[in-house]
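User: Can you help me understand a structure? I only have the sequence.
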Amino acid sequence: MAERPPLPLSGQVAGAIDWWREAGLDCDFVDDATDWLAPPEEAEAPAAPAIDTRAAEPPRELVPSVEPARRVDVDKSSWPTDLAAFRDWWLATDALDTGGAFPRVPPAGPAKAGLMIVVNQPEEGDRDTLLSGPDGALLQGFMRAAQIAPETVYLASLLPRHDTAPDWDAIRAAGLGELLAHHIGLVAPGRILFLGRNIPPLLGHDMAQGPAILRNINHKDASIPAMGAGGLADMRRSARRRERFWRCWLDWTYGET
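Assistant: Let's start by predicting it. Here is the structure, written out as tokens:
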């Protein structure tokens, strides 16, 4: 991949200001993070009536599905080798999970994208589009600040549907890391950004406490530069995490790697 010229200092400053503005912050006069970026609190919902579990089981609709993913089909020859077919398979195959209260959400973007972004899972409100809620809004703000055209990005999730309580040991055992590696191979991106600290370990990469420039992701004959960071939901709650991520992004993109 051709090296991009270093971004001028003025461009870096402007990008950082846009990043904070998109996050909703106009000014700050203290070093410690505050709760100014937290969404407004909603009025408390009326308390649900007590349920006597001794007499009957709770209604099924009140019990969220937290079943871990089943083992992905070990016959890898059955995995689609075409990206468009993979998207259809992602939505339809019963080899991925055991169902749940939330729909599966497809990945989106072009093959051979300049950047592939992988998140842990869809947002709770996602239906047809991945990251259609507040996490997606933060990501869009970041891409504008970083001068990344959305149409050049391939956006994917490790899990096919939202899970209220992911069991990461079970997810690892289910082979979803292997499936993600296959997915990456079909996309063949120029670079990869993992937004979720549980994702790189599934591909054999240990994460430090902060954002990290990882060893290249090797898939068959390709070696793809990669960066790992925390999830978008965590960044929304912490100005310091956003700042740390932004600095690491600039180092990865314009510094020496």
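Now, to help you interpret it: Residues 143 and 150 are 7 Å apart (CA to CA). The first strand starts at residue 115 and ends at 119. Let me know which part you'd like to focus on.
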